[in-house]
Amino acid sequence: RATLLLSRCLLKMVKGNIIVPEEILSFCCNGLQGSTSPPRAREPGEREEAPGAMASPSPARNPTEVQMSQLVLPCHTNHRGELSTGQLLKWIDTAACLSAERHAGCPCVTASMDDIYFEHTISVGQVVNIKAKVNRAFNSSMEVGIQVSYEDLCSGKHCSICKAYATFVAQGPLGSKVRLKPLTPQTEEEKIEYSIAAERRRMRLVHKDTLKDLLTRSPQETELETRDGSGAVPAEKTRVESVELVLPPHANHQGNTFGGQIMAWMENVATIAASRLCHAHPTLRAIEMFHFRGPSQVGDRLVLKAIVNNAFKNRWVPAAGIPFPPSPRPSSPSSLLSGSMEVGVSAEAYGQEMSVSRRHINSAFMTFVVLDQEGHPRTLPMVAPEPGDGERRYREASARKKIRLDRKYVVSCKQTEVPLSVPWDQSNKVYLSYNNVSALKMLVAKANWALAREKEKVRMYTLEEDKFLSFRIEMSVCITASRAFSLLSNLRRRHEWDSHYVSAELVQKVDDDDMIYHVVSQKLRHENKPQDFVILASRRKPCSKGDPYVVAFRSVTLPTHPARAEFARGETLCSGFCIWPESEEMSKVAYYNQAMPGYLNYVTTNVAGLSSDICSTFEACEKFLLKNKEDLISRLQDF
């Protein structure tokens, strides 16, 4: 009743143009929500509870996280009653853009999208759940991670559809770039994504160079298909050209066309091109990493072109000699046939004046399959490319297929599914380097490290997880982080402080940041011969303030250095150094090693003896760093 009287009093004061004190307004509003007493003052640090919030505390949520749920209606589906991939791409781009704008506080545009692999189709009546959040903000761009799953409302079943990473750029007035505020990760998962985002950014920047290198180095190897001409379909017969007018519903509040809308139009013409080759209804399985070259606006005409570049009929051969993944192999021989085709599609824009040259907006490469009634890929007609550009696109499609297999297996699979020694190849060097550094960064971000021993300045931690046993040894050293980074990344000098190393020979200098060494260690206790390793050493300087210097090690296989009888070939899954500057002259040096117990030659059942051995080695490392921190020759030597 008191609340009712206050409300009537407030109404009369408003009608009489009487200024209402803020305290009365607040009290009345709280009273209308069910409060019968004035609001109490919040304690320092206490968060304001949202109206209608439950009394039970809820876990903190990433402020950039956006969740979207869409019910798949008949208007969203194709003739099979399955969700159109173009529609899904529009939803993905919308959710990712909203997440990016939450962090930037200003309009954002899609700059690029990493590879997307669609694991399942979605049927009408099911629900698409999309979760997007910013993984890391750089200067004016940011990476947004997107997870897509579907939910069957009748059975309650949930299934993952795809995982994607998009790059967005924040835009100020008149298209000017906006400097983004840094993002602080909170949970273990967010810290892992934050750390690895820098590696994914590096991989995007060298993606085009990787393809050029493969084509230039061995163009004969990229001709994967044997063409006999019989029954081949001329590629020209699959060519599609279509035009779309950009209307206000296709654009954002700045008038720029939604990236997801452009991707949907591109998927449409690509599907038509694929259908013209197979005379059936294809299913989109993957979209290659692509970049938006420029914006388009309301009123633009978008010309979309598509053509089948190549059709792959050979049996699936693992890339770079990598064996089949541990998942069950297909039971049907026909399912071992790739039965896929690559469709190239481009988008160009022009205004009303045809005299102005067309602006290139985007190019993408999409992989389609045609499934039989059992869900296995059908064999496809071969493609007869046109001379000149057609031949070039044909060879590039074969090269992209090889790179795509490397990237999907090495980058996308779980750490436990990657063989300890992956065959080294020029085509997969970028992705093995990525896997090497990202595996170490994931280990660094792990929680639940337990302090096992502390001896003076050296602290040793252990982490038991599944079948892996991991160690972390850290100490503070009076040396600059860049100097320690230079010394510790040179494996040829490791024998000066690590008694387990006998020698390290530089086998191949891949680039300035990646080297391959042949390492010989001491004799094993149970074998009367020394152990040897072929190790990829990848080093990274900090991407931004707060990042560590990173030196990562993992085993690889080289044809020039096979296992020999005089050595016991060893393997390392993940190890390396992280170095954080603490001040101008002090650094925190941490060494990590993740392995199954049998792979470390000094892992024994005597944990105390093991920790003593490791701590002694690290103390020797400190002496080595202090001794050489003023060495001018070592300062100039990178590796």
Automatic annotation (TrEMBL):
Gene3D superfamilies referenced in this protein's UniProt entry, alphabetically: 3.30.530.20, Hotdog Thioesterase (3.10.129.10)
Segments for region (Disordered): 35-61
CDD domains membership: BFIT_BACH
Repeat recorded as keyword: yes
Biological or metabolic pathway of the protein: Lipid metabolism; fatty acid metabolism
Reactions it catalyzes: butanoyl-CoA + H2O = butanoate + CoA + H(+)
InterPro entries: Cytosol_ACT, HOTDOG_ACOT, HotDog_dom_sf, START-like_dom_sf, START_lipid-bd_dom, Thioestr_dom
Pfam families registered for this protein in UniProt: 4HBT, START
Occurrences of domain START (ranges): 449-608
Positions of transmembrane segments: none
Residue span(s) of domain HotDog ACOT-type: 62-174, 236-374
GO cellular component: cytosol
Any one of the GO BP annotations: fatty acid metabolic process
Keywords for this protein: Fatty acid metabolism, Hydrolase, Lipid metabolism, Repeat, Serine esterase
Highest taxon, organism lineage: Eukaryota
UniProt GO MF annotations: carboxylic ester hydrolase activity; lipid binding; long-chain fatty acyl-CoA hydrolase activity
Bias (Basic and acidic residues): 40-50
Record-linked SUPFAM superfamilies: Bet v1-like, Thioesterase/thiol ester dehydrase-isomerase
Protein name: ACO11 thioesterase
Gene coding for it: Acot11
